[in-house]
Structure to design on (570 residues):
């Protein structure tokens, strides 16, 4: 479904992404791991069009999307959440999600109908599926950190994506919150038939959830494979797991 | 509770409207005129607030579009001699066209760079109005512009302006509450996130600019109806600064704040202006106090008070309900 081929991106002279390769099959839960600064977020920014690659291709559903602007890529069916909570702080939780739903329904430019009667059902359905319905009237800026992260995912769901990209969905969460969030992600993948690409620091979480794991180091793809294959790979242990032990 | 709140504010509006309708026969002509000036200025400030407060764009030189509306009306009436209704329609459209052209360049930039480019391009239009003597009469301006009979006297002009003002405010309110308006506020809060949910941020911003400049053009036309003259100061950056301050004064995250801001500023200019030409000094001090004590603006402050008051009102019955 998604194929990243030999992707390069540099900032000044620093090679942030240096030959990344990634394959995501439909319906899979794929994780990208690697130490801090390995280029995971840059890779996600390249896939979603926030950055333009220097070289290489991003192919989604047989179509090269590496030159499209972010809003067009979103229209093709890729939605994302951000590593740093990236919501609309002055709008309510409901409106945060509604903005995405309205955009999906192509009603963002509708001028004269009251918005509070539009896309209500869809928005409420998403809010209840992630468990934020009771907080629908709260300002997004007033949410707790954990709820912020969930709202991130809810906004991305508003676009009814085929594929969801989550940049460290559990960053800064307590162990409890982490496991409930991963449960939510798994459930969404099953019930919505979503393909999910995510990156994560917690190794237990990754090896328990992902069906395929891609390891990045210094912007380069070292290996992509099933969790067992990756675990047994020596090079990985040197780069990442070994480093974690020390 | 919610219903009560709405009907309460509706009553306030009705009472206010009746008072405004009865004003001309009761008030001296001068005060009727000042009220009309407030409506025209308030409409201009609200159109600016759509871009600045709701859209988060630094439209530093907004009064240019006010001037374009006013000049287009003046020129089409005096020079082209078009039928009056056509002049009324064409003038706001001309302002919107100017807004489109200038906005098309500006939305490619962000924050201060947007603002600087906007000032430069806007000043070009001011220079045209100021220098092109054969067309605009330059610094002299154009005077005794004929206006239609239904708006010829001060009180009939007042009614015409009041009616247009209310109509525009209603339409702007609908837009504010529409998907377009909600999305616009989302682009203000977080443009990057907006593009990630599939919104073409630049196009949305440009659309907001075009709509806002249209209403600025309407305000320009109303100015001519009231004053029957135009002059290059309408496009001068000082006026832009003034309406920017009105938005800040009233509260730029509220919908009706700029009306209050405009009323305060116009009243101050008129009444403090009688005693001292340094009335802007008072405005300056007011602005400093505002930034320190009421960062949400006057209207934002009242709304907060009101909301808090409502919570207090609703809290006891809830408690009683729980006990019983």
């Amino acid at each position: 479904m998604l194929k990243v081929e030999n992707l390069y991106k540099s900032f000044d002279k620093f090679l942030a992404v240096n030959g990344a390769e990634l394959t995501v099959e439909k319906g899979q839960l794929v994780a990208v791991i690697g130490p801090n600064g390995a280029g995971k977020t840059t890779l996600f920014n390249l896939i979603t069009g926030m950055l333009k690659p220097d070289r290489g291709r991003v192919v989604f559903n047989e179509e090269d999307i590496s030159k499209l602007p972010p809003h067009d890529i979103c229209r093709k069916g890729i939605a994302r959440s951000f590593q740093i909570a990236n919501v609309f702080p002055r709008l309510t939780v409901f409106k945060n999600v509604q903005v995405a739903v309205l955009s999906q329904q192509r009603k963002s430019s509708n001028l004269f109908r009251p918005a509070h009667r539009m896309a209500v059902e869809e928005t409420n359905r998403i809010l209840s599926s992630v468990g934020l319905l009771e907080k629908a009237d709260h300002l997004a800026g007033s949410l707790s950190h954990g709820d912020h992260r969930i709202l991130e995912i809810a906004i991305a769901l508003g676009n009814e994506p085929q594929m969801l990209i989550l940049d460290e969905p559990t960053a800064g969460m307590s162990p409890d919150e982490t496991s409930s969030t991963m449960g939510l992600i798994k459930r969404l993948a099953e019930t919505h038939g979503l393909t999910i690409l995510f990156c994560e620091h917690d190794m237990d979480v990754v090896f328990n959830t992902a069906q395929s794991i891609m390891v990045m180091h210094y912007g380069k793809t070292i290996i992509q494979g099933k969790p067992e294959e990756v675990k047994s790979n020596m090079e990985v242990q040197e780069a990442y797991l070994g480093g974690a032990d020390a | 509770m919610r219903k009560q709140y709405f009907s309460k504010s509706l009553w306030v509006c009705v009472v206010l409207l009746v008072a405004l309708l009865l004003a001309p026969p009761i008030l001296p002509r001068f005060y009727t005129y000042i009220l009309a000036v407030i409506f025209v200025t308030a409409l201009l400030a609200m159109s600016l607030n759509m871009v600045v407060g709701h859209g988060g764009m630094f439209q530093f030189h907004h009064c240019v579009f006010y001037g374009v509306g006013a000049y287009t009306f003046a020129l089409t009436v005096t020079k082209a001699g078009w039928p009056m209704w056509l002049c009324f329609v064409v003038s706001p459209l001309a302002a919107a066209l100017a807004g489109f052209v200038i906005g098309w360049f500006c939305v490619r930039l962000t924050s201060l760079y947007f603002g600087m480019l906007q000032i430069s391009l806007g000043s070009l239009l001011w220079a045209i109005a100021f220098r092109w003597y054969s067309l605009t009469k330059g610094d002299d301006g154009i005077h005794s512009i004929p206006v239609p009979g239904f708006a010829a006297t001060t009180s009939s002009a007042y009614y015409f302006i009041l009616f247009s003002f209310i109509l525009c405010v209603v339409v702007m309110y609908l837009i504010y509450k529409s998907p377009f308006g909600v999305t616009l506020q989302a682009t203000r809060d977080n443009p990057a996130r907006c593009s990630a949910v599939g919104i073409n941020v630049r196009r949305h911003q440009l659309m907001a600019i075009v709509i806002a400049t249209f209403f600025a053009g309407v305000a320009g036309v109303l100015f001519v109806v009231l004053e029957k003259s135009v002059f290059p100061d309408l496009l001068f950056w000082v006026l832009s600064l003034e309406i920017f301050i009105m938005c800040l004064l009233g509260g730029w995250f509220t919908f009706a704040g700029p009306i209050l801001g405009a009323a305060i500023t116009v009243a101050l200019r008129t009444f403090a202006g009688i005693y001292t030409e340094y009335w802007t000094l008072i405005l300056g001090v007011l602005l400093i106090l505002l930034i320190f004590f009421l960062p949400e603006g006057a209207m934002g402050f009242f709304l907060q008070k009101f909301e808090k008051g409502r919570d207090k009102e609703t809290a006891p019955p809830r408690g009683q309900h729980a006990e019983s």
